[in-house]
Amino acid sequence: MGRPVSSDDPPPKDTFPVLIFHQQHEPRFGKLRLSQITPDLIDDFKDDRLAKGTGPATVNRDLAVLRRMLRIAERKRFIARTPFTEVELLEERSIRRRPHIVTYDEEERILAVADPHIKTLAVVILESGLRSNREALALKWEDMVVGETIRVRESKTSAGIRNVPLSGRCKAALLAWQHRVALSFHLTSSPTCGIPNAT
């Protein structure tokens, strides 16, 4: 028989899928029984989202929420089989913007005109391979053993917590920055003078 899709059901703990459900899926599927959600309806949903200018990656994230709901429904035997066995996700790789690999010449020209804090940040990232936001911008002087390593204490994953060897170029940039603002390492510009605030 199937069961109606209802927003009164207990929502998942993760609020992002709940938001996707209310914004995207409930208007389209909310009045249908689970057994009435067919591969053709899901394909129509994909086509409508793409026609409105939504990117394939976003559409796939939307579909992932619906796919999980229907897998749970299948496991709990509210439906005999999830329609996603006949639904293909959209190709994302072909439309992703390819990164531009900066040449050595471009690197030199960028660093020559960059503000001091941007130049230091760029050299640290180039020489160490640190992620800019979660790793490089989170560094403090106590994370440095100047001349030896950088201790990464914050990262996107637990595997990112590590010691990174310092190159001569990176060491020179850090020492120059330390001389410029001895109290702070944070490479975020001050609204008044372009120098990091002391912390």
Provide an overview of this structure.
There is one protein chain. The chain has 199 residues and is mostly helical. It has 2 domains: 15-95, DNA polymerase, domain 1 (Orthogonal Bundle); 104-180, no CATH class. The chain contains 6 helices and 3 strands. The protein has a 3-stranded antiparallel beta sheet, with no helix packed on it. The longest helix has 20 residues, at 56-75.
Key terms:
mainly alpha, 3 strands, 42% helix, DNA polymerase, domain 1, 6 helices, single chain, 3-stranded antiparallel sheet, 199 residues, disordered C terminus
Secondary-structure map with pairings?
Elements (H helix, E strand, L loop, with lengths): L14 H15 L9 H13 L4 H20 L28 H10 L2 H13 L15 E2 L3 E4 L9 E4 L2 H13 L19
Antiparallel strand pairs: 1-2, 2-3
